[in-house]
Amino acid sequence: MLHVIKGLTNGGASMGLLRMCVGGPVDATPTVASLVPPRPEHRATFERAGIEVIAGVEATRIAMAAADIVQVEWWNNPYVNDFLVNTDLSASRILLHSRGHFDAPRMCPSASLLSRVDGCTVTTPSAAANPQFERNRRLVGLPPARCVFSEAGLGTDVPLSGSPRVVNGNGNRITVGYLGTVEPIKMHAAMLEIAARVIRAAPEVDFEFAGDGPLDAYRAEADRLGLGQRVRFLGFQSDPAAFLNRLDIFCYPLNPYTYATSEKALQEAMLTGLPCVAFPVGGVRDLLTPDSALLVRTPQQCVDACLHLVGSQEARRHYGERAKRRIDSLTERREWRAELTRARTEIVSQALRPRPGIGVPPQDLFDFCTDPRACPTEALDTEQQSDFNRVAAFVDDDYAEWLDARTERPHSHSTTTERIPS
Hints:
Layout: E1 2-5, H1 12-23, E2 31-34, H2 40-48, E3 52-55, H3 57-64, E4 70-74, H4 78-86, E5 89-92, E6 94-98, H5 111-114, E7 119-122, H6 125-128, H7 131-140, E8 146-147, E9 174-179, H8 191-201, E10 205-210, H9 215-224, E11 231-235, H10 240-244, E12 249-252, H11 264-271, E13 276-278, H12 284-287, E14 294-295, H13 299-310, H14 313-329, H15 331-334, H16 336-348, E15 353-355, H17 365-369, H18 382-406
Parallel strand pairs: 1-2, 1-4, 2-3, 4-6, 6-7, 7-8, 9-10, 9-12, 10-11, 12-13, 13-14
Antiparallel strand pairs: 5-15
Helix pairs in contact: 8-13, 11-14
């Protein structure tokens, strides 16, 4: 198995890939190819686990010739798409493993891109249900996309079934926490307003945010709202279990247009037995049910749900137990290895095929690879469009930086393009 990824980091996609390599089907020998050379510490994480890492486009292209299956860790980014579309690839079998939700802005692969692969898997069931993706898949003759769930644990030394809840030692104070990327592409724009309303109604409550992002900007916003030390931004946490075990409530309001799928931070909170409050968007709706969490649709409902849990130790216990039972019994989480084996078996049954580079110019790559019809914008109001734009920036900024880096390097491929009709 050759796993191709844009670049190794300490983020969710890389950690999901690591778990797949280490805990996946035993008949696979994985090698990871990072198209963007990784930082030494991120490379070392994989190498300590016995996973060979290679870096760069040319090394990846050469390694493909020796692989039975090439699994591309996909979300819409120009590095992977340029590799798939414009590189002369030797005879191979390619499985596109999507780690982005097709309902999100800019996250649905076009039929033209899907024609370059032999199969597709997703990390949450609702992604494969996107109607435009399904049309594109059928158009190019790919088999139905299997769900290979991206399972989370609580660290290398903690069983996947989780660890017992640790009773919060803060006396009568209640800590509400968030774990994940702390920036507008992920977190709901009203998150700090939600925290402010909860704190004003319940003086015993503190909020803690764990994760990377523009934390100084969020701290300034918290100060503007008069939250002071009642809201703390902790940055990246290398031990999520330790962070989660000191919380009383897990509040996980995401941008309504989130690209997130299997939601490892939410899985970790559920494994820890935390009561959860969340918007049923992206992959959250595959993880949580109304009886296992407080699902909310508006910021005010989120405030009310948090206050309900703050005011009732019994409600916290009830929803915490149900969240843990839900994640422990989740079929997709239990069956991901079997589904991955089935997907790979389907791919191996296909003949090897070479893929000459098509020669899509850099400025046309985004349009060639992206189907915007999967997340239409015509009926959005101003607030919805703002939320859409915040998430779309995750892709747009990546393409802009990639194009800037290429302005002084002429495109080396032909300018003949091929597009699958839609």
